Amino acid sequence: MPIPQLVAHRGYALHYPENTLPAVQGAIDAGARFIEVDVQLSQDEVPFLFHDKNLKRICKQRGAVYDFSSLELRSFTASDPDRFGERFRQVSLATADEFARCLEQHAEVTAFVEVKKISIKEFGAARILEQLRKALKPVFHRCVLISFDLDLLALAKQSGWPRIGAVITRWRDKDGGQMKSLRPDWLFCDVDGLPAQGSLDLRHIQVVIYEVGDVETALELARRGVGFIETFAFGELHRGLEAMS
């Protein structure tokens, strides 16, 4: 029985505020060897780990990441109070260089770093890649740059980024002309965008399916040729799959 490997989606997001250092460390402590985080630039072009288009859900603040300086963003909490109440009120937004320092302590971990489109629109792909490369320098060789934006990925490949991954919502999107010329190392696809049956093995491209939280779905996808599953519930799925092996 094939057992897929797991990617911790925004860290161990089921039990910690997503894209925070506690979420990253929690995933590593639970056994994660692959972690995905999202990145956007602050007003003064500091890369921060953040997913949403605005700060409302995670920080209970108005505006977007790019509206604030890095100093201002550091003063906000990233506690996701609707889910966790006051439990994580001391947790702040994490910068990409803090993330890199965490990874330096865990040489076995590979990071998938997703650049969000909202930030690309605000700053441009070249500027984001420059700032992100600086921030991740100590662990650059262990970082896979991923994005929905294929133009950014093409520029990253041209500029020497070691590995890139395209993110799509529908499986059929893998067949576009730009995707074929890009030839990404990894392909991330939404589980809801998959065909009902058939092989999902792309041979020379590693396939990651998100968001999956149950053992049965993970095993079925592995039988169809999927090597990696991305999940918010890393620990629970990890233990469930270990019990099946």
If you had to describe this structure to a student in words, what would you say it looks like?
The protein has 245 residues and is an alpha/beta fold. The longest helix has 11 residues. The model has no long low-confidence stretch (mean pLDDT 97). The chain contains 11 helices and 9 strands. It has a single domain, classed as Alpha-Beta Barrel (TIM Barrel), CATH 3.20.20. Strand 6, helix 9 and strand 7 form a beta-alpha-beta unit. Helix 6 crosses helix 7. The protein is globular. The chain has an 8-stranded parallel β-barrel, surrounded by 5 helices.
Summarize the structure.
The protein has 245 residues and is α/β, with parallel strands linked by helices. The chain contains eleven helices and nine strands.
CATH names the topology as: TIM Barrel
Low-confidence stretches: none
Count of helical segments?
11
Query: What form results from the Cα inertia axes?
Result: globular
Q: How many β strands by DSSP?
A: 9
The proportion of strand residues reads 15-25%
The CATH superfamily is identified as Phosphatidylinositol (PI) phosphodiesterase
CATH arch. level architecture = Alpha-Beta Barrel
Sheet of most strands: 8 strands, parallel, barrel
Averaging pLDDT over every residue, what do you get? 97
Helix and strand pattern: EHEEHHHHEHHEHEHEEHEH
Record the strand order, biggest sheet: 1-2-4-5-6-7-8-9
The proportion of residues forming helix, as a percent range, comes to 25-40%
The CATH class is identified as: Alpha Beta
